[in-house]
Design brief:
Elements: H1 2-28, H2 37-62, H3 72-75, H4 87-98, H5 102-110, H6 115-142, H7 149-156, H8 159-188, H9 192-215, H10 220-242, H11 254-270, H12 277-302, H13 314-317, H14 327-335, H15 342-348, H16 362-386, H17 389-396, H18 399-402, H19 406-415, H20 422-431, H21 444-459, H22 464-499, H23 511-534, H24 540-543, H25 547-568, H26 576-598, H27 606-619, H28 629-669, H29 696-712
Length: 713
């Protein structure tokens, strides 16, 4: 026993030293070359220690997870929404559902401030805020039959704060889904390779679902091998299709993609969860994790240098060309999903609690999945930081700032203190077989260039274009899995809301209800997407500027509910676990909301921007990004809508936090007045491990259960 303890001590000491070495180099290095390996070392060392010690402390000491307690998936199993799902498949589903555009795009944009601020927030934020939120929400929702976040607020905080939470959560969900869908459309439009490969994941997932449910129940390893083999074939065949006569068939216009996405979202939302949603997300996780692991190995092998400054001047002056605003609060808002995301709380109180086999699995699925997403964010930041800073700013600054030629872009970049020649800009585009890389805003193309740079250093420069287009398709797959699960969660939220008025909607598997609510949710985000595709300044483009803030405001709601439930359930001394992240998130996000509403800088403040464009209209002038006077009026409308919406959402979140504080204070003073909506205890009959690999005790328990089952037969 002493030998095992000594070995464990040595291993974790080495892990701590690796992480500490990475942090030391990143923090102290100035004006010298720094390898991206140190960023990877700091992240992996920190994640390992956080999962091994902090998450275990929260799961078993704070939450007191109970392996003998039946989950809603076991008690309410109906084969549609409630279905006990193997922990490995559910881990893949949950990770795929939460890992959308945020961890890929946000860190790329935040690289404008330098690599150090983003690295600190991504790693520290996920350990103490993001992963904690996901796990605690998942636990409390599991204890409440998989209730949605807003419904938990209504039942535990009260009708007033709960109504504000329900309204805010649903409105933010529609915005998030519309933005995610727009990124997918932009990635897949006119891309036969991406469209074919991603389309093939649907029939492959259906095959996997029936294989596990009907043909070979429980054979997860078998179906994984089959699924991965078919996925790899689909990826390779996608390039064949793109170079064949079939290319035209799979080359879809943006408007056509909108129709397909809405139809897919509707179907995925109403089909039994085991049939399409869970296996497709599980399948896509292999590609997601595989690509990120290969990227990390590529960094370790190639050891690329971080070319971006540790901290750039834009961090303090707030006038960066990628996005306006100072480091505090906007770097935290921009990174969003990679460290803390309100969207995750919707998944943790949506599909996952209705599928989890054992309470003890909330640690691996809730906390572990979020660490995996944070690792994705770190790799995205690495990819953005190893390319030439001049190329980075030329790709991410709008055309109205850098112009439309490589000469004008080179001059604009030089004005910010970075150097890149027109020839280098042209060559960078040629290397990835693109006509131009100028003003490819949104972060996705920058990430693809960084990925191609890392892989090309390992496999050779001749494959640079292949890796670039592979990365573009990879990002679309990443985001699509968040769209289908998000649509289903939006359906749950709407059913919970309508169920407060008409009782049958409370039964989330009631077929008329699920069809009606799925159609409404798809219709809402589909409308904004359709308008956004046809009008560059309209539809979801109108709401894009509030994406980051709304997501972080939703995280404040989730953390407020978690803190309230910790206090009401007799865990007052542990309320700081979510209370401190709540205070931080509310401070950051409400500060950002205030600045976006009241700032006198037209690049930051919505109403100031409205005033500037309205004054220009009165003078008969056209300002960028508008090209016509109609565009000018659209910008005025958008700025007004965004300013009003930001103010309303911030007000709703303040109401939720204030009402939650009232409930907490009342409980502390008079605990007898409080009630909990927790489902009654029912003993579990399912035997399943808590982690990815079963312990010796869990193996013995499974063997004993198998003997008992055989005896019963």
């Amino acid at each position: 026993m002493r030998t095992a303890n000594a070995r464990t001590l040595v291993i974790w000491t080495l892990v701590a030293l690796v992480g500490a070495a990475g942090w030391t180099v990143l923090a102290l290095s100035r004006d010298e070359e720094v390898s991206a390996v140190w960023m990877v070392a700091a992240a992996l060392g920190s994640y390992a220690i956080a999962y091994r010690f902090y998450s275990k402390f929260i799961a078993y000491k704070v939450l007191r997870v109970d392996r003998t307690r039946a989950t809603p998936a076991e008690r309410l199993d109906n084969g549609i929404d409630y279905h006990p799902t193997d922990r490995r498949v559910l881990l893949g589903h949950h990770f795929a559902a939460i890992a959308g555009a945020g961890p890929l795009v946000g860190p790329v944009l935040a690289a404008q401030m330098g690599y150090l601020p983003g690295t600190i927030w991504i790693i520290v934020g996920v350990i103490f805020a993001g992963a904690v939120q996901d796990m605690v929400v998942l636990f409390f929702s599991t204890r409440r039959d998989g209730r949605s976040l807003g419904q938990m607020a209504r039942e535990e905080i009260g009708p007033f704060g709960g109504a504000a939470a329900l309204l805010a959560a649903f409105a933010i969900m529609i915005i998030l889904l519309g933005v995610l869908a727009l990124v997918i459309v932009n990635a897949l439009a006119e891309s036969p390779w991406g469209t074919f490969s991603i389309g093939m994941t649907i029939p492959i997932a259906l095959l996997m679902g029936f294989y596990l449910r009907v043909l070979r129940p429980g054979r997860v390893v078998e179906v994984s091998v089959i699924g991965v083999a078919l996925l790899l074939f689909a990826l390779i065949a996608g390039r064949w299709v793109a170079e064949s006569s079939w290319a035209e068939t799979f080359t879809l216009a943006p408007s056509t993609l909108v129709i397909w996405l809405v139809a897919y979202g509707f179907i995925a939302s109403i089909l039994p969860v085991w049939m399409l949603l869970a296996p497709r997300d599980y399948l896509s996780t292999f590609m997601k994790i595989g690509t990120i692991v290969l990227l990390a190995l590529g960094v370790i092998i190639a050891m690329p240098t971080l070319k971006m400054d540790a901290v750039t001047p834009f961090a303090s002056n707030g006038d960066g060309p990628v996005f306006a605003g100072s480091l505090f609060p906007f770097v935290f808002i921009t990174i969003a999903c990679g460290a803390l995301s309100g969207f995750h709380a919707l998944i943790s109180s949506g599909t996952t609690p209705k599928m989890i086999q054992k309470e003890t699995q909330v640690r691996m699925i809730g906390y572990g999945s979020m660490l995996m997403e944070s690792a994705v964010a770190v790799m995205a930041l690495v990819a953005a930081s190893i390319i030439d800073p001049g190329l980075y700013f030329a790709m991410n600054a709008p055309a109205g700032v850098i112009g439309t030629t490589v000469e004008s872009a080179s001059q604009a970049v030089a004005g910010w203190g970075y150097t890149i020649s027109p020839e280098d800009l042209a060559q960078a585009a040629k290397n990835v077989e693109e006509s131009s890389l100028l003003s490819r805003t949104g972060g996705a193309p920058t990430l693809a260039v960084g990925v191609s740079e890392i892989f090309a250093q390992v496999t050779g420069g001749g494959l640079r274009a292949f890796w670039y287009h592979f990365a573009i398709m990879f990002e679309a797959l990443f985001i699509l899995t968040a769209l289908d699960a998000g649509t289903r969660v939006g359906r749950f939220m709407l059913q919970d809301m309508l169920g407060n008025v008409y009782k049958p909607f409370k039964n989330i598997s009631w077929k008329p209800g699920l069809v009606i609510t799925s159609a409404i949710v798809c219709g809402l985000w589909g409308y904004f997407l359709w308008v956004g595709v046809h009008e560059p300044l309209g539809g979801i483009n109108q709401l894009f500027p509030v994406f980051g803030i709304s997501n972080q405001l939703l995280a404040a709601v989730a953390l407020a509910i978690c803190t309230t439930l910790l206090i009401k359930s007799g865990r007052l001394k542990w309320a700081w676990i979510t209370g401190i992240p709540l205070i931080w998130d509310a401070t950051v996000t409400l500060t950002a909301s205030y600045q976006k509403v009241f700032s006198s800088d037209p690049k930051v403040g919505f109403f100031k921007q409205r005033q500037v464009f309205q004054d220009a209209i009165d003078r008969g002038e056209v300002l960028a990004p508008a090209k016509t006077m109609d565009d000018m009026r659209t910008v005025v409308t958008n700025s007004t809508v965004d300013g009003v919406l930001t103010a309303i959402l911030a007000l709703l979140i303040i109401i939720v936090i204030a009402d939650a504080a009232r409930v907490c204070v009342r409980h502390i003073r008079r605990p007898a007045l409080s009630t909990l909506s927790e489902a009654p205890y029912v003993e579990s009959k399912i035997v399943a491990p808590a982690g990815l690999f079963p312990t010796q005790e869990e193996k013995e328990e499974a063997a004993h259960a198998a003997v008992g089952t055989a005896a019963d037969r």
